[in-house]
Write a structure and sequence with these properties.
Distance between the termini: 24 Å
CATH class of the largest domain: Alpha Beta
Strand order of the largest sheet: 4-3-2-1-5-6
Order of helices and strands: HEHEEEEHEHHHEEEHHHHEEHHEEE
Strand content: 15-25%
CATH topology of the largest domain: Creatine Amidinohydrolase
Helix content: 25-40%
Structural class: alpha+beta
CATH superfamily of the largest domain: Creatinase/methionine aminopeptidase superfamily
Bound molecules: glycine, manganese (II) ion
CATH architecture of the largest domain: Alpha-Beta Complex
Radius of gyration: 24 Å
Shape: globular
Length: 433
Amino acid sequence: MSETLFALQLAHLKRLDRAYAGILEREGLESVAIYSGHSEPFFADDHAPAFQAYGHFMHWVGLAGAERSWVVIKPGQKPQLLLYAPSDFWHLTTTLPEEPWIEAFDITLCKEPTAPALSSKAAVIGDVERLDARQQKALSGAQFMPQALITALDELRVIKSDYELACLREANRLAKAGHQAAKAAFIGVGAELDVQLAYLGASRQRESMVPYQNIVGLNGHAGVLHYQHYDLTPPKHRYSLLVDAGHRFRGYCADITRTHVGPDAPEIFAALVVALYGLKNELVQSIGPNVEFLTLHQQMHRRLANILVSFDLYKDSVESAVDLGVTRAFCPHGLGHLLGLQVHDVAGLKSESGSPLPAPEEHPALRLTRTLKPGMVVTIEPGLYFIPMLLAPLKERELAINWPLVDSLINCGGIRVEDNVVVTESGFENLTP
Ligand code: GLY
Ligand code: MN
Ligand code: MN
């Protein structure tokens, strides 16, 4: 760990200390215990799926893989870390990271899962319902998941500290190495699995560590928004590749998408991909303090309408493409979301004061409706897809869609380009240039 990052982490912990003290006082609480969580074995089996710690736990310690552990915050005292470290000859025993930040915590290595004993002026947050009776008993005096506390702690994660930004920058750097290797594997006629393995190798991570399952879609699979498989054999024709894949660094997530054009794609597809990269850049340039994210999302739809018209995919006005919902069939997801310890980070659909800001009815998949502020980190991910399931209802309406041209693109699946962007005092910083 570099000295710079360590200094930033100490400042981050101080900021958390102060903020938690204020929030706990306001809520009339003496302390809060944050459970990291644990993974349960599959039904009737003895092994469990990959684990990822609770965001508020990682906000303090960044240990994304620390199961059955606790952070306890009591203002005026060092934060307490109860790190589960069983004596177990089947697995490598957990040890403390050899990093200087551990000095900032009062740490206990627990051989048994150990819940802290708490008073009635304490709160417990996390997925504690599945804890055994002994641990439940230790916690029983405390207040479970008080909503006002959760709302305030979620809000604290919205504006990133310099330490968090450094982590997100590093997560992006690692993910970008993966994306370069994925592109090379595609050029080398790899199957989806080859692209996936190239990505994991170059970004130095095993599959259980990724912040979300990598989306690696060739051809029509590029039009399945969260495509979840990896074909083992390369297809006969190679129209397109969409890779949506990230990386975690000290808990913080990168979420990057790139679309590549294959040798068998129609010319118009290559031009559309260039247009989408241009649209992504234009939207990134529009980011700054006090910008409404919903306005940016609407700007994306107007520009998508423009692209549909200028490429002769839609033979009517830009306004009608938006008003009649045509662009929504070509891009059914939102422009982006908050990014941090979770890929879809908390508090995207509420205001600073906690009041709900739901997505508008016509854009139900939009995950961020806030006014942008310096320190927020968002994704910008415009898309243009040719999804038969969404195009079919348009075919039943009298719309000026150039169906032969649209149908010629179905094999290409779709295009998405996604960058991670920090809102700064003067505008933005693109973490994914
Ligand atoms: N990787 C999921 C998303 O882009 O939101
Ligand atoms: Mn995203
Ligand atoms: Mn993504």
